[in-house]
Amino acid sequence: MICARQVFRCCKWLERMGDRLTGAAGPFFVGLAVVLTSLGAICFFTIIQPDLPLPWLTTPPCVLIAANMFMHYYYVCTVPPGFVDGADPQPPRRSLLWATHPPASMRWNSVPASTTRCRKCGQTRPERAHHCRICNRCVLKFDHHCPVRINQCVGLHNERHFVLFMAYLVLATFFLGILGYGKALDALGIHYNNWPHAVPALAFILTYMLSVVLCLAVGIMLAWHVWGVARGETSVEAQDHEVYRRVATARDDTFVNSYDVGARRNLELFFNVGPGGYPWYTLLVPLRIMPYTDGRSWVRREGLEGHLGVRRGEELTDEEDEGEEGEGEEA
Ligand SMILES: [Zn+2]
Ligand SMILES: [Zn+2]
């Protein structure tokens, strides 16, 4: 028993060291991501794009995809995720970066959230908020802390930019992979040996290979995230709900996630588009928009005020972190 406790403490210590290390290395990874995405864009627009047919037709979508990728990356790194103890980002009166706010009367009907007190920072926080170990603060609709790509938490105010950044990165790398195939063979010297471009052939080959790998890897992550959004779950909730489902099934009960209002509406709420939200075109232009809620009330299934199949005292909180079980965090 003592041995198990010591092993647990040792693991916790290693985990804390890991957090500190990833926290310190974060800015380096963000810098690297900016350099690599810029290199990808330079390769595409100086080598692949000039040879595309019908440039007046093919250039605008390419520029739009690149603009969305860079702007959503900028937003996801700089927009605070929504701290329980901090001010929520508000649209300025006049700004080119913000989409026009939909009329307040058309907003979704939300049910006020219940609150709990965080044992680590002492904040009173609404449902769906969780404490982030690395930021050491409670985050509204906490999804995960992403130390490698964005060096901050993904939460209520930047989750939309996070998913859209991944979507545009997958699109950009997909087109670079498909349209750059012939140029990659040229760079390898398979078609002919003189490489007339300013970017060295080796740099193009490495960028091309990285794009193909990223397209597959980020594509899988994007699919997983969109699947979660369509089910009305954050990354943390996906794990918690798995436990609730098992507990409920063990006593012949059924777990129902009360935030799940149907795949289409879950997606509309997440991106805050469609009836009552912003226009659909806001998914295609790199604009900032407000989430449908302030994180203190949530749209729920008709007639439900909480999840079904979870009894009092069975709710999982991040306090388990102090005990025997840790809350998973994804890179
Ligand atoms: Zn907290
Ligand atoms: Zn964090």
Structure description:
The chain is mostly helical and 331 residues long. Helix content is 47%, strand content 7%. The strands form four sheets. A two-stranded antiparallel sheet has the order 1-8. A two-stranded antiparallel sheet has the order 2-3. A hairpin with a 4-residue loop joins strand 4 and strand 5. Helix 2 (55-78) runs antiparallel to helix 3 (159-179) and helix 3 (159-179) packs across helix 5 (201-230). The longest helix has 47 residues, at 2-48. The site of one zinc ion has 6 residues, from strand 7.
Q: Which percent bin holds the helix content?
A: 40-55%
**Element string (H = helix, E = strand):** HHEEEEEEEHHHHHE
Unreliably modeled segments? 322-331
Termini separation? 32 Å
Distinct bound molecules? zinc ion
Q: Strand order, biggest sheet?
A: 1-8
Count of alpha/pi helices: 7
Strand content: 5-15%
Per-chain topology:
Blueprint: H1 2-48, H2 55-78, E1 111-112, E2 115-117, E3 124-126, E4 130-132, E5 137-139, E6 144-146, E7 152-154, H3 159-179, H4 181-187, H5 201-230, H6 235-250, H7 263-271, E8 297-298
Antiparallel strand pairs: 1-8, 2-3, 4-5, 6-7
Helix pairs in contact: 1-5, 2-3, 3-5, 4-5
Bound molecules: zinc ion (2 copies).
Protein name: DHHC palmitoyltransferase-domain-containing protein
